[in-house]
Amino acid sequence: MKRKHRGLWIPLAVVLLPILVFTIVCVCRINTHVKDYPYDPALPQPGPGVDFKYDDVFADLYIRWCNLLDNGMTAAWKAPEGVVKKELRVTARDGYTIGGYILEPEGCESETLPTMLFCHGGAFFLTMMNSQLDMGAVYADELHCRVVLPQYRISLGAPYPTPLDDCYDTLKWIAASPLTDLDRVMIYGDSAGGCLAAEVTHRCCDEGLLTPCAQMLIYPVTDRAQHYPSLKTYEHATWPREANIRMWKLYLNGYEPTSADYAVPMEHESFPAYPPTHVEAAEMDTLCDQDIAYAGKMKEAGVDVTLQEIPGAYHGFDGDVQNEVVREVLDTRVAWLQDALDQVQ
Questions:
Q1: Who is most buried in 87, 124, 303, 310, counting CB within 10 A?
Q2: pLDDT tens-digit profile of 42-81?
């Protein structure tokens, strides 16, 4: 006689139903319009992504799931030949231990080297990804420098100023290290990490911690204002307009910054003692116009600014460092940074 397992359906449903609901909700939030734009066909084409505009428990769960996955992947990431990966441990001002990674040329572990503070992107609420480690490895190898990537606390549980403070405390750690060539410190950031990098630079210049020799901002978040034309023109591209609005809401968490704060780069009134700066904008990106405006504002203030707009590129287009077009862009970045290093007497 066949045994009946009717009693198993109840616990099975308790487990599977929430997973099914979560999956359906996430699928309904996929940004299906991301492919509507004429991106450069030589670039890896973006797939449909989840639009982070929603503000509810499902969105928070999805973000936490993404971060859990990315944390596991970065922990397992293996450095390419010629580069060494090490754990970063920095004590923050409140006693918290900031994790992350250090990438450096093989055989140079005890040498004094130029150093790059790499502030990773991710809308302030996503953690580091393997593509950012891939990028850091390129810089460590080709610039013969040490690349420090802090895993700063994210805005989902630690809004402004904590992510900025963590990055700045990491710069303090870099400045205190006997292995840092203090005349050759570069500050780098992509996307939201570009905002953090810009504000670390501004704070560093205000406080006189050190004199950076270069600042590089890659499709950076620079302004909380939502009036730029590219926010509408490319509102459903890889970084959607509505997600951009939610990003700032989570990051500022009700705080209303002033021009004296280190929160919104575009709202600063002056840029004293700024290092040479390279701003890279992606043409088909909601942030494109604000990046161009920020570069222009710095230039008007007397900063030595190089602005490059990548045609047909989207937000996050440089995730595959082996792609031929991405490689050409990387060559330009490396050449600019190398020139900045060489300018130091």
A1: 124
A2: 999 998 776 777 677 778 888 888 899 999 999 999 999 9
Beta strands in the chain (DSSP E): 30-31, 49-50, 83-87, 90-91, 97-105, 113-119, 146-151, 180-190, 214-218, 277-284, 305-314
DSSP of 24-41: HHHHHTEETTTT-S---T
Query: What is the Cβ-side half-sphere exposure of residue 150, based on CA atoms within 13 angstroms?
Result: 34
**CB count, 10 Å around CB of 63?**
20
Model-wide pTM > 0.85? yes
195: exposed, middle or buried (Cβ count in 10 Å: 0-12, 13-18, 19+): buried
For domain 60-343, is the CATH number 3.40.190.170? Answer: no
Q: Give me the residue spans of the domains in the chain.
A: 60-343
Task: Check if the beta carbon of residue 244 is closer than 8 Å to that of residue 286.
Answer: yes
Neighbouring CB atoms inside 10 A of 22's CB total 15
Ordered alpha helix ranges (H), 127-181:
130-142, 162-176
- Amino acid 2: pLDDT: 47
Q: Which residues of 99-126 are buried (b: 16+ CB within 10 A; e: fewer)?
A: bbbbbbbeebeeeebbbbbbbbbbbbbb
How do residues 148-178 score in pLDDT, each as one tens digit? Answer: 999 999 999 999 999 999 999 999 999 999 9
d(CA 59, CA 76) in angstroms, rounded, equals: 26
SS3 assignment, position 114: strand
Q: What is the pLDDT of residues 236-249, one digit of tens each?
A: 999 999 999 999 99
> What DSSP line would sit under 45-60, residue for residue?
PPPPEE-TT--SHHHH
